[in-house]
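quick one before i forget lol
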Amino acid sequence: MNEPPFPLLPGKHTLPSVTDPAEHAAYVRTRHPGATLTHTAGTVLIYQRALLAHVRTQPHTRSNTGWVRGDLLIHEPPGHHPVAVCGGFGVGGPAAALAVEQLAALGTPRIITVGTAASLHSSLLPGDLIVCDRALRGDGTSHHYLPPGPYAHPCPHLTRHVAHTLHAANTRFRHAVTWSTDAPYRETAQEVTCYAGHGVMLCDMETAAVFATSGYRGLPAAAAFSTADSLVNRQPRRHNPATDAGLLHLYDTALTTLRDPRTAQFAR
C-alpha cells in the first residue's frame, strides 16, 4: 500500500470545499430568520471566559443564541453602531477558524481578535499590550487556507487603525510578531530561542488561523494581545490582575475602533 503524499494534498488551499459556511447561515435562518451581522460595525473575537462574563454584564448587550458555535452577543448602546462579540467557542486555531467562517457567512464586515499571549522576550511583562503585525504559522489550520509560507498576515489598514485608537488614548503598546501553535504543552526551549532570534516576541494559539481564514474569505482582521505568562523566565501559572486589565482595555479599544466611521472603508 502506497503512503499518502505529504503535504497530504499539495495546493489544497486553491481547491473548492465540499462544505460551505453559507450552508450554516442558511440553516440558522430557518430558525432565526433575522440572523445577519451585516448591520454591525464588526465583531470582537474573544477567548477568555472572564472577559466574556464581563461583556455579558454590560448594559445594552443582548444574546443571539444559536447563530454561531459558542456565544454571540450584540452590544448596542443608544446612538452607537452595534458591535458583535463572539466567545465561548473553544480555544485553538480550529475553533477560532470555525467561528470566523460562521461569522463571515452571517455577514460580519470585519473582525478584531483580542486575547492573551505568552512572552518570548524578557522585556515583556504581564499586562503589556501588543498589536500583532503577523503570525508565525506553527498551527495546522492556516495551511488549509494559505499557500506554504512562514507567516499569516492581518489587514494592514485595520491593524494601523487599532494602533491609532491606542495612540489616541495615550496607551503604551508595542507592535510585535506572534507564534501561533496548536500544542501549548509542546512548546520547547529550542523553539522559543529560535523564533525569538527571528524577532518573534509572543506565543498564542489562534492568530495564524484567524488571519488565514479571514484572508481567505476577504474579511479584514486585526489582533491585539495582553501579555500573560512567559516562556523565557518560566514560572508556575498564576493569576495576574495586570493581564485582565490589559484585556479590558483592548476590548474597549476594539469597540472604539470598529465604531469609528473611518474603519468602514476596510471592508471585504
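fyi Helices lie at 21-31, 49-57, 93-105, 156-168, 189-197, 207-216, 241-259.
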